Amino acid sequence: MDEGIERRVVSRVTWRLMPLLCLCFMAAFVDRVNVSFAKLTMLPDLGLSQTAYATGAGIFFVGYFLFEVPSNLLLQRFGARLWIARIMVLWGIVASAMMLVSSAWTFYVLRFVLGAAEAGFFPGVIFYLTHWYPKAYRSRTVSLFMMAAVLSFVVGSPLSGWLMDHPHLGLKDWQWLFLVEGLPSFLLGIVVFFYLPNGPLEARWLKPEEASWLSARLAAEREEQERHEHLTLRQALTDPRILLLSLIYFFGVVAAYGLDFFGPTLLSHAFPQVTKSTLGWLAAIAPLVAIPIMFFHGRSSDARHEHRWHVALAVFAQAAGFLMLALGLPPVLVLVAMTLCVAGRWSFIGPFWGLPTAMLTGTAAAGGIALINSIGNLGGQAGPLLMSGLASASGGLAMGLVALAGVATGCGVLALVVPLHRRVSGVPPNVRYGIGE
Q: How far apart are CA 98 and CA 172, in angstroms?
C-alpha cells in the first residue's frame, strides 16, 4: 500500500510543481548570464574594459550574498508562493532595466540590484522541495531542477544570438536583448502567485489521503533526523560542516561562472567568422549533451546513497575540460572540451545539495542552505575576475582556464573529506565523521 501511494504521490507532485519551478529557474538563469552575449557588442559600444565587464558580471553575486539568508528566512515566514512570486516579479523588472546601462557604474549598480532581487530564489526552492519530497528523492529532484538552468543555455543561447541579430524599437542589439529576456520572469512571477501551494495540505490536486500520507512521511523523517541531530539556526550557521560545504560550493561556483561568463567568448575565438545567431546555436550544444548526463548522475547518487564521490568525479571531469580548452584545440575539439566542462559543472550540483539537506531541518535548514548558497555564490564574482585578471594582452584565456582547472580540482578534493555528522565526544571516528556513507 505504502509503495503504491508513494509512487503515485511523488509522481503527482513532480508533474504539478517541477514544470513551473523549472520554467522559473530557466528565466532566472537567462537573466543572470545573458550579459555574456550582450558583452560581445556592449563593451565596444560603451567603451568598457574586460575588467569592468568581469567586475559587473560578478558584482551580481555580492548583492545575492548580502540578501540571501534574510530572503530565505522570510520565505519560511511568508510562504513560498508569495515570496517566490515577489522575487521573480522584481528581478524581471530589474533584468529588463539592464537596457539602461550607459557606463561602468550603471552596469555595476544594475547588476548588484539584480543579484539582490534574485537572492533567495534558488535556496528557497531547495528548501521548498524538502516540504514535498522524502529524502530518497531529493538528489534526483534537485538534478531535475538544475536541468532547467542547463536548458536555459540550450534555449537562451540561440534566443540571445537571434535577438541580437534582430533588434527593434530603435534599440541597440544588447539593449533589445535585455528588454525582451526580462519579461518572462515578470510574467512567471504572477503565475507563481496564483498557482504555487505552500505545502501538501494546501495542494488541491492531492487527494486528502495523499496529502496526509505525504505530510506524515515528511514529519516522520524530520523527527527521525532530529533524534540523531538537532541544530538550531545559530548552530547551523556556525557548524564547521556547513562552513566547509560553503567553501566547496564557493570553489565550484568560481569554476562554473568563470566558464559561463566567458563561454561565448571562448566559442567566438574558436569560430571567429560566424554570426551571433550561429554562435548561439553552437553554445547550445554542450548543455544539450549535459542534460541526460546530469540526470543519470543525480539518479546514481540517490540510488547509491552516496554524494561525496559523485560531487568529486563531476568537478574532476570539469577540470579536465578546462585543461583541454587551455591547449588551443581545433574548433571541433573545443566543442568536446566545452561539453566536458558543462557536464561536470552541472552534474555536481544535485549530489552536492543532497549533503546539507540530509543534515538540516526546519529554520536551521532555511538558514544553512541559504548560507551555503550565498557564500558559495560569491565565487560568481571571483570566477570572471580570475579569467579577466589572467587574460593575456592579446585576450588569450589559457592561464585563466588552467587556474579554473585547479579550483575545480580543489573543490573535488574537499568534497571527499566532508564529515556527514557532527563531532560527538566518545563516538568512534568512523561514526562521527560518516566514513563509508
A: 12
